[in-house]
Prior knowledge:
Blueprint: H1 2-16, H2 29-39, E1 42-48, H3 53-62, H4 66-75, E2 76-82, E3 88-91, E4 94-97, H5 98-104, E5 112-116, E6 122-127, H6 132-143, H7 152-159
Parallel strand pairs: 1-2
Antiparallel strand pairs: 1-5, 3-4, 5-6
Helix pairs in contact: 4-6
Amino acid sequence: MIKAKFLFTVFFIVLFSGAVAQPIKWISLSKAQQLASQQNKKVMVFAEADWCPYCKRMHKEVFPKKSVQDSLKKYFYAVSLDIESDEKVTFNGQTFTQQSLSRKFGVSATPTTIFLNSNGNIIGTQPGFLRSDVFDKLLAYVGAEQFRKQSFKEYLDELGIDIH
């Protein structure tokens, strides 16, 4: 009986493992910049703090969504940046603490999402919590460079998504 339950559990896990989103692979900023340059992708920096409830909500409700993960994998390398950390990071060949780099990026609230092109230039920033149905569209909007053609609101309007 135990063997049958074990085999059923293994079968169930294998059968449905494709439907379950895998955790985001957060990498270092220097590695993300290197890969982005090689692969002509962008870097998404998620600036957060341990005490931030909206950051925790993003990790719990937004990042696990398959649509968000699909957009991230297609267009970006993901980096987490702790706005209060003294841990060193390398950005554009210079060394910063995560805290000082957050200030350089102009982060004044958490969470803030910062988008960098493959050369390390800031494309734009988005402060605050966004629902997964809006966040994955933001990723596609920035990733596919729709920002060159229209505003994010116009982009969402075309898709029939209300952000309120």
